[in-house]
Amino acid sequence: MANSKNKRRIITGLILVLIAAGVFLWRYLTPYTPEESAETALVTSGGVTVEQNDNWISFEPSVTLGTSVIFYPGGLVKAEAYAPLAKRVAEAGHPFYIARMPLNLAVIKGDAADDIIRVHPQQSFVLGGHSLGGVMASRYASEHPDQLEGVYFLASYPDEKGSLKDTTLSVLSLLGTEDKVVDRDKYNEGRSFLPGNTVYFSILGGNHAQFGSYGPQKGDGEAAITEEEQQTRTVRALLDWLGNLR
Length: 246
Description:
alpha/beta; Rossmann fold; 7 helices; globular
């Protein structure tokens, strides 16, 4: 009888542990979802054809005028949330591809650029991303420098595994002055892994989340500019950089 009671206690305890673990994982892995502006940008219009598959979202301009762009989303942010940014860059003549990540975490699929590059062999590419996406983009770039023209970071930085300092890649780094999510110490440390010709650009009044269109992010600073204005400045900086690639 005692053994039976002990078994029931053990089973009950295991069930409670599994429930607690499930709740924890559900809360941790719940992604930030796209706002209405992002959903609107996913519709073909303005000379940009938008198509989606299981691995990426493509924004193809009717006339290609420059280098193509691959984008890795931030951690736990759905790929669709970056549609407004992608579409505006594509409208300027640069094909734009947002990689989809398993569980919305670029760390799981750091080589996502491989398939995009393989399917578009006639195009030249830059690769970058937002937050965690930028970290993983730099790791890919450090291992495949010959496949890329440059790397860009939105509220992000490379780590030692993604060091680009010994490459000839062009690099752009953008950061909002009100960003409270980025670890400033690691951001500054990341500068040591970038080449001397890296272009740094501060977005006055910008925060972390407004590089995408998914609403406020936990722990972020309050932006002093609108999301539209932050993305306008981001697009302008990206286009200027793309226009000056070696």
